[in-house]
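Loading example: each entry is read as two labelled lines plus one structure line.
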Amino acid sequence: MKFEWSICLALILGLGRLAVAQTPTADAGYPSTGPLSGYMDFHFNKPEAKDGILDFHRFVLIANHSFSARIRFVAELELEHAFVEGLEAAGELELEQAYVDFLLTRGFNVRAGMLLVPMGIINERHEPPVFHGVERPFVDTVIIPSTWFENGAGVHGELGRGFRYRAYMMAPLNALEFSADEGIRNGRQKGSQSNARNPAFAGRAEYVGVHNLTVGASAWSGKSSFLAPRLDTRVHVGEADVRYKRDRLELRGEFAQVWISDAGRLNDTIGPLTGISPNVAEALRGFYGEAAYRVWADGPARDLVAFVRYENFDTQFRMPSGFIPLKQFDRDAWVLGATYYPDPDVAVKIDYVWQRSRSSVIKAPNSFNIGLGWWF
Amino acid sequence: MKWLALAIAVVIICGAAGPARSQQRRVIQISAERFSFTPSEIVVDAGEEVELRLTSDDTAHGFRIAGTGVNVVIPKRGRAEIAVPFRAPEPGRYTFECSRMCGAGHNFMRGVLIVRDRAGRTAQR
């Protein structure tokens, strides 16, 4: 019997070692997962002195297809607020991405279609498990109008030593939709028969050469007064950001500023059209810093992360001559909360937002929020 | 009979000991996170035995080296490290990339494996 056992033991040892040495899987071609993926975002928001709201904020499906190893298609279709009805201010159905990538070399690739503007931390990296807080940061919503997407074409690539870039030519913003409270946000044409009389240019450079450190800078520039050709409204957006992780600590920060030229005449043009002066500023500014700590990181892939974020955002930062800033839109906020990951792709979020505005009359509401977001 | 059985056992164990040489392989740690690999540039010598050890800092990613047959799934954060024993192919530059859709910036998630010849040169592919 001993002989048979020794042979069995030898076989087990031998086969076990051989199995370890094998390449885990063969090249299975494209795509290696199903053609459909996406993410979802489900929220409960309770602003101070108002009723709570349950909102299925985002339902996003991402489709991808590879025509070949070098030609690939990606699309992202988003339903916001669960319901869309014509002429109602309810949800939105948005085609946030739909482009073809022509992957030529490591340093030079071409992309065309509906593109995400390469701007800031969140706009291109907005899956719910990758940021803390139930809602996206105010700076990435009010100053940088995430999700900011537009028709265009451009190039991207990696230059080596951790440097990479994107440079796109895109349809511009529509300045006649700018406002005091939401800045340039309503000026997005969203790729719907976008006027392209004056192309805009967007670019981003990133350094990812050091593990756990990402440093980025973005810029956008375009003439945005195509519906009022007598105006010379040019919009420039500049942004810088950094993300860093060390052990259990995660830090991130972002600074963004928007410049709008000819803003005085823009206000004079919009006023008669809408009946009220939009009080568009000639500069908007925002910044934030966030620290997160992985409180519970042992055991299986379940994590609990506590975070705090300070944000300062002002859509009336500098006004054109003759216009007075509306102080209720000069705001800052503290966001304190936690994210629990029962799985790395599932995020259960809770936070409280203390908001302040510089206005002594119109207060910015505090809010309590709970969210459930997932990627698949 | 005893001796025959022992001899067979010794032969099998010795035969299986081949992969144990992998302990001498150079180990290269690669970390994946939306939407980059670190490092994104790896240099090896043609014919060199290496072991790529892959981990993810977030979701599951794919790791495919074009033209080599390597295409694996890197498990989600905290789940496991995956080891890929790998013999460097002919000199040249081989693109590696995420082969599993991981988010809006998935197509940016690429890197290059540079395989040098014995003189330290890299052929253009």
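The helical segments of chain B are 2-16.
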